Amino acid sequence: MDPNSRGPEEYGHDGNAPRQRPPRDPLTPDFGQHAPALARTVQLVTGDYLLTVNPVDGSEIEICPPGERPGRPGKLTADERDRAARAARPPAPPGPARPSLPLLERQEVREDLVRLLARGRSVRLTGPAGSGRTSLLDVVAEDCADLAPDGVVRLSGFRRTADDLLYDLFHAVHDAPLHRPGREDLLDCLRDVGAVVVVDDIEFGGAALDDLLDATPECAFLIGATPDVPAPSADAGIEEIALGGLGRAAGVDILERVVGRALTEEEANWAGDLWFESEGLPLRFVQAGALLFQRDQLRASADAVDEFGVFADATPADVPLDAGDGDETPLPSLGEAAAPARLLASRLSPAARAALRFAVVLGGEVPHQAHLPALVGDTHADAALGELVSSGLALPVGSRYRLAAGVLTQLEAAGYAEDAEAQALTAARHYAWWAGHPSVTPERVCAEADALLAALAVLVPATTASLDGEASVAVRLARTAAPAFAAGLHWSAWERALRSGAEASRLAGEVSEQAYFHHELGILALCGGELDRARTELEASVGLRGAAADKRGAVTGRRALALVTDRSGPPAGPGTAAALGTAAGPGTPAALGTSAALGANAGEEVPDVGSEESRSPAGGVPAGFAAAAPFQSPAEPYVVHREPSDGPAKSRRGGLRGLARRNLVAAGAGALLAAVLGTVVTLGATSDNNADNPSDQVGVNPSASQGPDDGSLGADKPESGTGDGDTGTATSRPTDPGPDGTLGTSDDPTPPADTAGPSDEPSGTQSSGGAASSSPPRTPTTGPPSWTPTTRPSTTPSTSSSPTPTQSASPSASSSSSTTPSTSDSASGRASAAPTVTSSSAGTPTVGGTGTAGTVI
């Protein structure tokens, strides 16, 4: 029997009958190979661009079509804001509910905050870590729920910049999914937001805080910060309130509520010593109450800790310091109460201690309770979060939990940072699988951004080239998380992940992955308006992909690089003829004329006009392009969407420095040729006064070029009519080829304004990208918002956008001058255009038949 050609008898049917698949047991899964899942691409609008986040070949970017550009976003309703606020809160930890602690000795501060916010004033609440700022902000936010039209918006300032908070506020108030507006549109939308904005754990002040306040004149801010955060400027108009510690009686009350019983005399004296040492910080009393509660559990179950009992699997560092006879368990010493993290952790379950090790490795970020079973290896490890929170070792920060102040340092000293690289490797492998799963949304990945970035921070410095060809875990994590951060509009995390991935791929020697990260960094820089940086990153990406033979990725990079060139123009090169020919487009009259003039002195080869690579684009030069810069010097070609530069004159001088000698020779030859031709024209004009002289019938603006199909190079043809009072139809005829086989053309590619016919090119291709956009002036908030319920008139000045200045270059305003002498051959009846001597604004004349100066392909 041939195993490669089995007969039909093996399957119980003849060769003509269709082959039947055996029935599948519904209880048995199909273990056959499934089709690979499609890459999850997300398309969003950012500023003027349409960005397609492609995790395979790299993100693609283009100018957003008018039909897909979103309008001004609408605001969320009150119910939608409430649902979004509830979703942004940290999840409740599993296990028994924590005892509710009242707000002790804070009633006066609470009333002051509410009164100031009701008047539309912004307040900065300053207090040390553990002073109860977050609890006070929560209560005040509930009191101010009905003050402002847009309600109360809760934001987290932890590791967030001022720009991040502006976008967070925009998305918290507006209904704008997959839309990241530009800077001007963002500020315009935020001027109409009237809300009480509560920002906790802010990390910046000074000018950055002033910009945040100036961008939201109708908002009242309640800001929570530690004393080490820079203060706002004196002109910010922010009220400052300092938050101190609690009294001794309040501290004892917190201890009794946490323990659930009255304190003994010994414990009350111990609480008094703790109050003096801790300066009355509420967090210290919560942790001390957890110590007393654990002590009660040890005393109630002495048999459970005989020979360490439930702690038998604990390492020496995790063994309870006072494990022994429950009746003889002493009170913690004052030093242990001052730094209780080690003692508290030693009395937790093994799963909770394992979770603490991951939190220490991740820089204080406690993994989400849904990740703990996979990380720890225990199906019930999600209950560990409840233990950490009830003991005061973890506190809510934004939408997640972090180790409390001082806990990270204490656990590191207790040995919880051992094997940090192995722990980070485990976390990175899990997060790389999780972030790339199709069921995980980008918003969910963004909520775990700090934990993912912390794992990258540990693994990237230790990355080395793999000997077995296995991809680096750090590279795989960054490669998976970066597209999710981009799609979830968490762009600060996107940038950090890309930079970590680029460094990790460089250390691992993975060229294709390094090219991807540089490509994404270029896209990010382009979206942020940093064109020079975008060009550098994209050029590096294209070069790396060329080395890795990644054709699809190289095409994606070249498309993005072409958009950068379109927005900013080609980079200023050393001024060689080759660079000028490339900038003007190979094969175009401008490139041919410049290359011929300069190559005559340097022996450079002039491209063939008939070659496929040297042809101008179909349709010729856009109408708006030719009208904008008819006399532009080839040394600095006009580019559509040019961005403003700091020193245009300096760049022009630098670009022409290398051509000084050639231009002098070309200028001398052109001046001599112009003098000779001027004499010939004068003699020809006075020797024959025939009215039917063909040379008199040639218009001042002949065709600039010819197209590829009809014998011309593709220039726009005017329909009918000529200028200067001529009647009839002006016809463009080819001139005699020059000595090098090229066609002579005229300097001015556009007809006069009074005779220009309609163009067949699509209109609207030229934008005001080159105009300098002026942002509205910053005006400090000197009065309450308009929604403030007060009898005092509002003194908040309104900020209006100033008109955007634009630049336009016209033939009349151009500083260049052009002289085009022509000769006539009365015997043949043909007119030929002579070479042109053009004096540019930089003071260096150039010679050549330039018809489409500044064309960029």
Structural descriptors:
857 residues; alpha/beta; 5-stranded parallel sheet; 39% helix; disordered N terminus
What would you note in describing this structure?
With 857 residues, the chain is of the alpha/beta class. The protein has a domain at 78-244: Rossmann fold (3-Layer(aba) Sandwich), CATH 3.40.50.300. It contains 28 helices and 16 strands. Helix 4 runs parallel beside helix 6, helix 18 (449-459) runs antiparallel to helix 19 and helix 21 (511-527) runs antiparallel to helix 22 (531-547). The longest helix is centred in the last third of the chain and has 28 residues, at 660-687.
Number of beta strands:
16
| Largest sheet strand order | 5-7-8-4-9
**What class would the helix/strand composition place it in?**
alpha/beta
- Radius of gyration, CA atoms, in whole angstroms: 37 Å
Which oligomerization state do the chains in this entry correspond to? Answer: single chain
CATH superfamily membership of the domain at 78-244: P-loop containing nucleotide triphosphate hydrolases
Contiguous uncertain segments of 5+ residues = 1-35, 304-326, 574-661, 685-691, 693-782, 790-857
What is the global morphology? globular
CATH topology of the domain at 78-244: Rossmann fold
Number of helices: 28
Mean pLDDT: 72
Measured distance between first and last alpha carbons: 65 Å
Estimate what percentage of residues fall within beta strands: 5-15%
Helix content class? 25-40%
In the CATH hierarchy, the architecture of the domain at 78-244 is 3-Layer(aba) Sandwich
**Under the CATH scheme, which class of the domain at 78-244?**
Alpha Beta
Largest sheet: 5 strands, parallel
